[in-house]
Amino acid sequence: MSNHQNSGQTIKFELDGQQVEARAGETIWQVAKRQGTEIPHLCYSPAPDYRPDGNCRACMVEIEGERVLAASCKRTPAVGMKVKSASQRAVAA
Predict the structure, then answer these.
(1) What CA–CA distance (Å, rounded) separates 43 from 8?
(2) Which one, out of 8, 52, 76, 86, has a CA that is 20 to 30 A from the CA of 38?
(3) Environment class of residue 31 by beta-carbon count within 10 Å: exposed (0-12), middle (13-18) or buried (19+)?
(4) 29: which residues sit within 8 A by CB, 6+ positions away?
(5) Secondary structure class of 93 (helix, strand, coil)
């Protein structure tokens, strides 16, 4: 029995139409930054032991099939997820 998120394997998902891989425990925002995609942010900091709270809602993304937008600084990707960082809904948020 293995858990995909904690096994050290990568999670493959789609970000703005491109196949990308997340490392275990990585958020959508962290993957986007590593890929060169700029998602606005306020409460995220790369400082050690700093955890964003997602309350500022500056980093919202659209996830296909989900009714509400998600804070990319808190949300971890799932296999096959389709994320849009620059959709009209995400940009307007």
Answers:
(1) 27
(2) 8
(3) buried
(4) 39, 41, 44, 59, 72, 73
(5) coil
